[in-house]
Design a protein that fits this description.
By secondary structure, the protein is of the alpha/beta class. It has twelve helices and 14 strands. The strands form four sheets. Strands 1-13-14-8-7-2-3-6 form an eight-stranded mixed β-sheet. α2 crosses α3 and α5 packs antiparallel against α9.
Amino acid sequence: MQYEEFRKQLTHKVEERPEWKELATFVPNKPLPVYNWFYYKEGFAKQLVEKLIEMFGLKEGDMVLDPFCGSGTTLVACKQAGINSAGTDVLPTAVFAASVKAANYNPEKLREEAKVLFRRKFRKLEWEFPKIMRAMINKYALDDIAFFSSSIDGLENKDFFTLALLNASIKVSYAWKDGGVIKIRKHPVPPLRKLFQRVVYRMIKDIEDSEPAHAAVVVMQGDARKLNLDDGSVDAVITSPPYLNNIDYTKLYAIEDFFMKMRHVPNMRSFLGIRDMTEQAEAYFEDMNAALAEMHRVCKPGAHVAIVIGNAYLRRSEALREPGEQTFSKAINREIETDFILAHMASEIGFGVEKIYVLNKRFALENRTEKKGILRESLIILKKK
Ligand SMILES: C[S@@+](CC[C@H](N)C(=O)[O-])C[C@H]1O[C@@H](n2cnc3c(N)ncnc32)[C@H](O)[C@@H]1O
């Protein structure tokens, strides 16, 4: 079916849900144990995953996939509900944070290792930190990072302590993420070692306080366009792909990247959604089409898919070819209805579109202040036929 016709028929499936607005954000995770071990601006809320588990009637032993798993919200929420899950992401930091959050631990062993770690006598190490790190973090904190990084190295729970150190390092940094750029704003910060110790013991307590969960979680560094999963192996997909915009999120994670380099994790260059703006929209939808086709391949018949996505706004000179092969290369000021376009693609691939819940509406801004139209953030619900 042509896009225009599809779009007309879609109208009665669109439902406004402003009360779910916060669920498309990481904000509700901030006070939550485990979820808050790593702050991920692009993340969504645990409660959204819980709502979808209920909506889809998922039960213990089922398998959920999040091909754009980010910091692992879907995986941790599924694990807590006794549901097995698999996640992939291209960003090493996200994969790392998700794996540490989803892993099983022996809290006694963690306490033992923490005790040894914090008893060690401080030694100043001559580490060469990159310039960006020196701009973001004061020199005393950098000395602490060097000392603790090398002390953690031999521990059995090295990854757990590394995430705690990363968490504390971000808290003492002067960096502040403003949209797509990092700004440096100096302000008084507590000593890193104190904060690190506090974070470690809080994380151990989170584990001690949590119910034991027996579900399996697999986290892989990989590309959502080519999943390492069998055909028809998944009962549901709960995910949120990158939005169509020109923010290179990979640049926002300098401190995180430094920690990953220490762990010798290579960075992958297949981040969806960051390209030259003129070809960006076209390439984005091509990539998303491939990702949707993969979701369709790995889903069992009857499996549900939930996708949280925000629409985009392209400025005058930016070209776009929409499904339907029309090319708009002239002056355009327009909203790209990513939610409807993805739903159309999904229906062409073989999904039924059940609902589009509109969670949020915000102004599209030009030059960061001029209001130009309204952008939706939506939750698309699909079902494999
Ligand atoms: C909106 S975030 C998902 C956040 C996640 N729901 C959470 O709660 O943390 C989108 C994610 O897609 C990842 N990503 C971008 N391109 C990808 C690709 N080709 N394959 C897999 N993941 C990709 C990004 O690294 C980012 O973590």
